[in-house]
Design goal:
With 323 residues, the chain is an alpha/beta fold. The chain contains eleven helices and twelve strands. It has one domain (23-322): TIM Barrel, CATH 3.20.20. Helix 3 (98-109) links the parallel strand 4 and strand 5. Helix 2 (58-70) crosses helix 3, helix 3 (98-109) packs parallel to helix 4 (141-157) and helix 4 packs across helix 5.
């Protein structure tokens, strides 16, 4: 047989050629960096299970955000560790809450950086669940009013984007209605539309002190076996007014990201979660993997699956390596 006329290796001969024809690109402009904000001032403490990530007071969060902005990363998303917790997570929607203070501090320092906030009760409730609890049940509809109050308080503090992660039915519609009524029609909603009940959240629950005190979250977060259900959740959130829809976690659910990308015209986000990050950091610390190549390959795979936006703890590392 004659040698084939097509030789794909021609376009792999040098880095310039490979870059010229590269189909999928990932850079700091595609990334959002999570920050964990805590009470006090001048406070910065590394999170043991998330090397390189910290609990930060509002002033330290602003300092961190300045670096994030300098690195060209698109934005940050804030999670709060309140001074106190109660059954209804009231610190989550208090105007002087830790996230609200951090939003104001960051907005005062950073002019271009996008500021998003996590909207969920789990970090603020004494029971650790994402909604109002009656007996042993997390009840849906009474939770919606509190989530809407939290979203409005974040918008009032200056958040550009609010990101409900609770997985209550109807919360996107409730938040959109409340934001509009309060005069925050321009604040976008990034919905955790397909959030799975995943074992990959372990380090985050330590970082955010948000583990449930009884039971688990499988009655409201999604079954990892389901894809069609994810598409249903996404369609509902789009109909209720979501501006961006997200799949969480990312790596074990690349097929879901692809299915969502093919089903909607909205931007699609994915959360490269704490467990995914911690495994890479642990293996790299032992010299078992090439961290830079693994991170680039991981984030590229998420983009290739269809994510326009990636929330990732690797954001600063990738930005430094890119620069």
């Amino acid at each position: 047989m004659p040698f084939p006329a097509e030789r794909p290796r021609r376009l792999r001969r040098s880095e310039r050629l490979r870059a010229l024809v590269r189909e999928t690109r990932v850079g700091p402009e595609h990334l959002i960096y999570p920050l964990f904000v805590a009470p006090g001032s001048g406070f910065r403490k590394e999170i043991p299970s998330l090397p390189g990530c910290y609990h930060l007071s509002a002033d330290e969060a602003a300092r961190e955000a300045r670096e994030v902005e300098r690195l060209g990363i698109a934005g940050v998303i804030l999670f709060g560790l309140p001074e106190g917790k109660d059954a209804v997570g009231s610190q989550g929607y208090a105007d002087d809450g830790v996230v609200q203070k951090a939003v104001r501090a960051i907005r005062a320092e950073c002019k271009e950086l996008l500021v998003a906030t996590d909207v969920c009760l789990c970090e603020y409730t004494s029971h650790g669940h994402c909604g109002v609890v009656e007996g042993q049940d997390v009840v849906n509809d009474p939770t919606l009013e509190l989530l809407a109050k939290m979203a409005v308080s974040h918008a009032r503090a200056g958040a550009h984007v609010v990101a409900p992660s609770d997985m209550m039915d109807g919360r996107v519609g409730a938040i959109r209605t409340s934001l509009d009524a309060a005069g925050f029609g321009d604040v976008a909603i990034l919905s955790y539309a397909a959030k799975y009940a995943s074992a990959f959240y372990g380090p985050f629950r330590e970082a955010a002190d948000s583990a449930p005190q009884f039971g688990d979250r499988r009655s409201y977060q999604m079954d990892p076996a389901n894809v069609r259900e994810a598409l249903r959740e996404v369609r509902l959130d789009v109909a209720e007014g979501a501006d961006v829809v997200m799949v969480k976690p990312a790596l074990p659910y690349l097929d879901v990201i692809r299915a969502v990308r093919e089903s909607v015209d909205l931007p699609v986000a994915a959360y490269n979660v704490s467990g995914e990050y911690a495994m890479v950091k642990a293996a790299a610390a032992r010299g078992w993997i090439d961290e830079r190549r693994i991170v680039r390959e991981t984030l590229t795979s998420i983009r290739r699956a269809g994510a326009d936006v990636i929330l990732t703890y690797h954001a600063k590392d990738l930005a430094r390596w890119t620069s």
